Amino acid sequence: MPLPSFHMIEAAPQPVAPFSHACEVDGWVFLTGQMPTQPGAPDAPLPDGIEAQTRRVMDNLVIVLEGMGLGLENVAQARVFITDFERDYAAMNRTYLEYFAEGKLPARTCIGVTGLAVGALVEIDMVARRP
Questions:
Q1: Which of 6, 50, 104, 111 could form a disulfide with 20 if both were Cys (CB 3.0 to 4.6 A apart)?
Q2: 57: helix, coil or strand?
Q3: pLDDT, tens digit only, all 131 positions of the chain
């Protein structure tokens, strides 16, 4: 089995901790969880509300996927972490759903957590597969 390759995507937001944007091994691409931070402006305030933060997170994931030569159609699995499950679950789902073609939803887990880095309301990571 080949060794993993580690990728930093120039257009993506700077990591908030020591990690790569993506790691690839044997055609599988593991995307680090993205925060609702703005590419090129790591100190900018986070967007207000779960919808805006989910949109920014998904846009950041698309940037990483595109930097790897992939798209959301290549995503096999996603994990969503939200800090206020009861309040934000439905609204997060509505926004998340906007990003995928009808009937082409990856497997997914959604987990309520007590906190996320940078005070975010949502973080999403993904696993994609090269065709």
A1: 6
A2: helix
A3: 789 999 999 999 998 889 999 999 999 999 999 999 999 998 899 999 999 999 999 999 999 999 999 999 999 999 999 999 999 999 999 999 999 999 999 999 999 999 999 999 999 999 999 99
